[in-house]
Design a protein that fits this description.
With 278 residues, the chain is α+β, with helices and mostly antiparallel strands. It has one domain. 21% of the residues lie in helices and 28% in strands. The protein has 7 helices and 13 strands. The strands form 5 sheets. Strands 7-11-1-12-13 form a 5-stranded antiparallel sheet. A two-stranded antiparallel ribbon has the order 2-8. A two-stranded antiparallel sheet has the order 3-4. Helix 1 packs across helix 4 and helix 4 packs antiparallel against helix 6.
């Protein structure tokens, strides 16, 4: 847990900006929903932007990072979960508490109002919203990462179609399905911004880096247990922009250039990191 208290005052100190590449080690499927089916297309297409290019939605990456942190912190248990949605068949359970030192809620924000606990009992009554410190932007495809050699073997110009079969355990009848995927070797450019609103926020980047490391040994998107969604991070650049950057045009401070997650984690967990954010 963090050192925040109910008396912690919030005032912008600066912003930490982390950019880099998200590399697909296996095919990546982030679904576009059934509403975008095309005749002759895959049963499960990937999400694409207005130019027809696959991308990683910021909401998908942000939600995955949050869920991995919740699991690692022992907070993905019924006693710590509330219902974000209770629609039958579309229930959404997330961690949320009213504890001022809950760094998951500090990073990702709190929803105001009444939220029902999964275990029942007294609901959480949020008197006011708590601002999210972490912003995750949509990650566009780096088009040149899909090479000419890769395009020759793809089912579409930028994507592949993976065929799968679900086997009935009684009749042994196959139920074929297809999954559109961005191929292994594709690369997306991601950008995260962490607002530092008080002195107690300075260690929060370490939790973000922890979630990125967890994701490298987990999966992103659909079909993860069937081989899809293994990713890695590379070419990381970390920049500090203090309040004077916005108020008076002061220079930004580059804290890391072209590093990997190991280098980034060593930086943000070092004793000098908080002092460098001046």
């Amino acid at each position: 847990m963090s050192s925040h208290t109910a008396q912690t005052e919030l005032k912008l100190i600066g912003k930490l900006i982390l950019e880099g590449d998200l590399d697909c080690r296996t095919g990546l499927h982030i679904g576009a929903g059934k509403g975008s089916l095309e005749i002759g297309g895959a049963d499960n297409p990937v999400v694409k932007d207005a130019f027809g290019l696959p991308y990683v939605p910021g909401s998908t990456l942000r939600g995955r990072l949050r869920s991995l942190l919740e699991q690692a912190s022992g907070l993905a248990v019924p006693s710590e979960l509330v219902y974000l949605s209770r629609r039958k068949g579309q229930e959404v359970r997330i961690h949320q508490s009213d504890r001022p030192d809950d760094d998951i809620c500090i990073l990702f924000g709190r929803n105001p109002g009444r939220l029902d606990r999964v275990t029942g009992g007294e609901p959480i009554e949020g008197a006011s919203a708590s601002p999210a410190r972490l912003t995750v932007y949509d990650a566009p495809l780096v088009s040149e990462s899909i090479t000419a050699q890769m395009r020759e073997n793809l089912d579409d110009e930028l994507t592949e179609v993976k065929s799968e079969n679900a086997i009935d355990r009684i009749t042994s009848q196959a139920n074929p399905r297809t999954l559109e995927r961005v191929p292994a070797g594709a690369r997306f450019h991601f950008r995260l911004v962490l607002d530092v609103l008080c002195e107690e926020d300075r260690p929060l980047l370490a939790r973000v880096v922890e979630s990125l490391r967890l994701l490298e040994d987990d999966t992103l998107g659909g079909g993860g247990s069937r081989g899809s969604g293994r990713v890695a991070f590379s070419g990381l650049r970390l920049v500090w922009r203090g309040r004077d950057f916005y108020a008076a045009g002061a220079e930004e401070k580059e804290l890391l250039a072209s590093g990997d997650l190991s280098a980034l984690q060593a930086l943000v967990t070092g004793g000098e990191f908080a002092a460098s954010l001046a």
